[in-house]
Amino acid sequence: MIRYKKLGYVELNVSNLDRSRRFYEDVVGLEFVGERSDGAVLFRCDDEDPRSVVLHQQQPAGFKSVGWQLEDEAQFELLHRRLRDARVPYEELGSAQCELRQAIRVTRTTEPHSHAALEFFTADGPRPDKPFAVTHTKIQRLGHVVWSVPHEVESIAFFREVLNFRESDSIGEIMTFMRPFPSPFHHGIGVGKGPKRVIHHLNFMVSEIDDIGKAQNRMRKHDVPIVFGPGRHPASTSVFFYFLEPDGMTLEYSFGMEEFTEVDPRKPRTLPMAAESIDEWGSVRDPRMGQTGDIEEARIGAPA
Ligand SMILES: CC(C)C(=O)/C=C/C(C(=O)O)=C(/O)C(=O)O
Ligand SMILES: [Fe+2]
């Protein structure tokens, strides 16, 4: 059984890197780390990881890749065996690509139904020498990424059966939340049903309810579209707040989240497809939520 440490990074394509750099730093509250030799811009949002978000100047804007940190080196053998058995191609990245990702070892594959790039890595180096520089928002960590895809049933099965992600809950047939085993957090990924392949949202978990309240006023001040919330998700129990970044992709702050035990966790539930299953507080979703941000079509063997 493949064992994961956590969600490590998400890479996004943006149409105007300077504009997005300012937004993710000043409005979202990520810490700018630097620019990579390939021009990508790195941000961090916790004390442990050297980078959690990587932005690339590339059109169309959207999702580029996600990196899952494996528990240790031994997990690569299990991962490769599972991918081979499922006849899913993968590649091990060379040292230059590992270095760009500040990783020791990286295996890259694509989710066969959405063609989204998935990376699996180990990074046993020292923690950054300085704690994450909090500005206005006490971000705890990169929380989860959610996609909408046409073949969601097959994607969910791939995460479950090949990658050893565990289902936490579903909402009707429109959304399933999964955690990379044995990560305790309710979900590290959400896979939703949709007509096109888009990133539905990217989540940052925050430390205080005040971070949510302050965000509402900050977004209004900066004319940032608020697309849902504040509210409370009954599935994970988190208090949420969704807004749009400059290319129209949806970002979420959330406070609090159910945690699962590794041994004998509660069973996954299916909540009815109803407004009350999405928000206990009754806020209304803006139709722009989760609509923008193509999933880049990744190919194994092409430049990563
Ligand atoms: C907006 C979707 C359909 C929803 O219900 C979200 C629930 C949760 C949660 O329970 O925490 C999310 O965070 C999520 O979808 O990402
Ligand atoms: Fe979310």
From TrEMBL:
Alphabetically ordered keywords of this record: Aromatic hydrocarbons catabolism, Dioxygenase, Iron, Metal-binding, Oxidoreductase
Superkingdom classification of source: Bacteria
Span of domain VOC: 6-123, 141-256
One function term, GO molecular function aspect: dioxygenase activity
Cofactor(s) demanded: Fe(2+)
Protein's name according to its UniProt entry: VOC family protein
UniProt-listed PANTHER family: GLYOXALASE DOMAIN-CONTAINING PROTEIN 5, GLYOXALASE FAMILY PROTEIN
UniProt-listed InterPro entries: Glyas_Bleomycin-R_OHBP_Dase, Glyas_Fos-R_dOase_dom, GlyoxalaseI/FosfomycinResist, VOC_core, Xdiol_ring_cleave_dOase_1/2
Span list, region Disordered: 281-304
Family designation: Belongs to the extradiol ring-cleavage dioxygenase family.
